[in-house]
């Protein structure tokens, strides 16, 4: 398991749920985002549509063979809006 906490000041303007899910699906690890008490599967478009991103801490967690690479890529995307 590899986790990373992000504190975001806002959602990047280039942020896209579809791109986030597509990025997550390029990795084999199971990936989740925890926002407050809710946890969402990053590979699920329905889960990501339920995610209410706002300023504050997010916990990105990966379980699997490429967990660190996947969590870092998701973190970069969430903070910069770039793939």
Measured on Cα atoms, how large is the radius of gyration? 11 Å
Number of strands: 4
State the end-to-end CA separation: 23 Å
Query: What is the overall shape?
Result: globular
What helical percentage do the residues reach?
Answer: 25-40%
What average pLDDT do the residues reach? Answer: 89
Strand order of the largest sheet: 1-4-2-3
> What is the H/E string?
EHEEHEH
Q: Could you name the ranges where pLDDT drops below 50 across 5 or more consecutive residues?
A: none
What percentage of amino acids are in beta strands? 25-35%
Query: Biggest β-sheet: count, sense, barrel?
Result: 4 strands, antiparallel
Helix and strand content put the structural class at alpha+beta
Number of helices: 3
What can you tell me about this protein's structure?
The structure is a single chain. The chain is of the alpha+beta class and 83 residues long. It is 35% helix and 30% strand. It is built from 3 helices and 4 strands. The protein has helices spanning 17-25, 45-50, 67-80, and strands at 2-8, 30-35, 38-41, 56-63. The protein has a 4-stranded antiparallel beta sheet. A hairpin with a 2-residue loop joins strand 2 and strand 3. The protein starts with a strand and ends with a helix.
């Amino acid at each position: 398991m590899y986790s990373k906490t992000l504190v975001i000041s806002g959602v990047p303007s280039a942020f896209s749920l579809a791109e986030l899910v597509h990025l997550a699906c390029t990795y084999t690890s199971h990936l989740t985002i925890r926002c407050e008490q809710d946890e969402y599967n990053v590979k699920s478009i329905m889960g990501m549509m339920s995610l209410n991103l706002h300023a504050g801490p997010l916990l990105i967690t990966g379980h699997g063979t490429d967990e660190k690479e996947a969590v870092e890529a998701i973190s970069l995307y969430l903070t910069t809006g770039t793939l």
